[in-house]
C-alpha cells in the first residue's frame, strides 16, 4: 500500500461532485478535530455522519465496545453529512485521514477516484454476505471501497381511509396503469391523489429515479422512450390534478407534511418517515413503488458505507479492519439498523428485522430491488447526470418544455 502523499490529490471536480452528492441529507451540525496519530498509537479515529448521537448513545457505546474488542481506544468525531465529505478530502490531502470513515453512499466513488480510500482487496474487508445491489453503490472501476452499514430507500405510503372512501383496493395497484386508475378514483371521491418531491435539487432526482428506472430507462440515455414515459407519467398526474403543483417546490419533508394532513391517498417517501407515520393519526400502509409493467421498481438507496481511508502507515489497516468487522457483524448490524431506521444490507439480518417487526416487510422488499445512484459504474459522472435530470423534471412539470424536449436537452448537456 503506497503512502497517500504519493497518491493523486483530490481535484476541483471531486469537490464539485461531493457538493452535489451530499446535498440530499443533513443530520444537523457536528464538530470535531483530526489530531495526528502516531504509527504505534493505541487510539483509532472514527468519523461518522451521526451528530444526533451523543457519547451516551447506543451507537457511541458500540464504537467503544468494538475498540475494546480490538484492543484499542476509539476516538469518535461526528460531522454533518456534507461537512464530513469535505473534511475527509482535506484530511487526505494532509495525510491525516481517519482510520475508519462512515460516509453517505454516493460519496464513496468520488472519494475513491480522488485516491482517499483503500479497496476491500487491500484492506481485506469481508463483503460476501452483503446484497450485491447494495454493495454496488460502493464500487467503481471493478473495485469495492467499503461495506454498507444499512440502507434506506423510497416507497409509497398510503392512507387506508382515503383509499377506502374512494373504493380503491390497494391489492389492485400493481403497475403504473392501475396506480393512475386508483388516483382517478381518489380524485373523483373528492380527495387528493399523490404527493412527492420534484424540487430542482438532488432530492428531486432521488424521487424521480424509481419511476425513471421503473420504466426501464438508463441514466446513460436520459432521453430514451422509457425515460420520456416516466416524465410523461408525472406531467400527466399534474395536468389531471392527481398530484399538486406544489411538488415542483416540495422537499421530501414538505411533501411528507402534505401527506400527514390526512388528505392524500399516496406519498412517495422514505424509511426515515416511519416514526412520523406512526404519529400521523391515521391508518397507513406501505407499497413498494411499482414498475411500469408491474413488479417493484428499483428505488435509489440511501445509507452509509463504512470505509478505510488510505494511511501513510499501512500497519494500521489490520486493526481498522477488526473495528469494521465488529461494527458490521450480524448482531451489531441488527442493533445499529434498528437505531437508524435502516434495512440491513444482508439477507440474514433483513429476515431477523422482519421477524421482529412485520411492518418492515415492504421496506425489505423495496431495498432488495433498490439500486445505488452511482451503480452501473457511473461513479463521479452521476452528479452531472443527476443535475440535468432534475432540470428536465422541473422544465416538464412547469410546462416550459415537453418531456421529450426536456430530456433531449438534458442528455445533450449530460454528455
Q: How would you portray this structure in words?
A:
It is a single chain. The protein has 415 residues and is α/β, with parallel strands linked by helices. It has 18 helices and 11 strands. The chain has a 5-stranded mixed beta sheet with strand order 2-1-3-11-6. The protein has a 4-stranded mixed beta sheet with strand order 8-9-7-10. α2 links the parallel β1 and β2 (73-78). α1 runs antiparallel to α4 and α2 (58-70) crosses α13. The radius of gyration is 22 Å and the shape is globular.
Question: Helical stretch count?
Answer: 18
Helical coverage, percent range: 40-55%
What is the gyration radius calculated from CA atoms? 22 Å
The strand count comes to 11
From the helix content, strand content and strand pairing, which structural class follows?
A: alpha/beta
Arithmetic mean pLDDT: 90
Largest sheet: 5 strands, mixed
Largest sheet, spatial ordering of strands: 2-1-3-11-6
Topology order in helix (H) and strand (E) letters? HEHEHEHHHEEEEHHEHHHEHEEHHHHHH
The coarse silhouette is globular
C-alpha termini separation: 35 Å
Portion in strands: 5-15%
Q: Any low-confidence stretches, pLDDT <50, length ≥5?
A: 1-13, 19-36
Name its key features:
disordered N terminus, 415 residues, alpha/beta, globular, five-stranded mixed sheet, four-stranded mixed sheet, single chain
Set out the fold topology:
Blueprint: H1 12-21, E1 43-48, H2 58-70, E2 73-78, H3 81-93, E3 100-104, H4 105-113, H5 120-123, H6 132-135, E4 139-140, E5 143-144, E6 147-148, E7 154-159, H7 160-165, H8 176-188, E8 192-195, H9 202-214, H10 225-239, H11 252-260, E9 264-270, H12 274-279, E10 284-287, E11 304-307, H13 317-327, H14 330-340, H15 347-356, H16 361-369, H17 382-397, H18 403-414
Parallel strand pairs: 1-2, 1-3, 8-9
Antiparallel strand pairs: 3-11, 4-5, 6-11, 7-9, 7-10
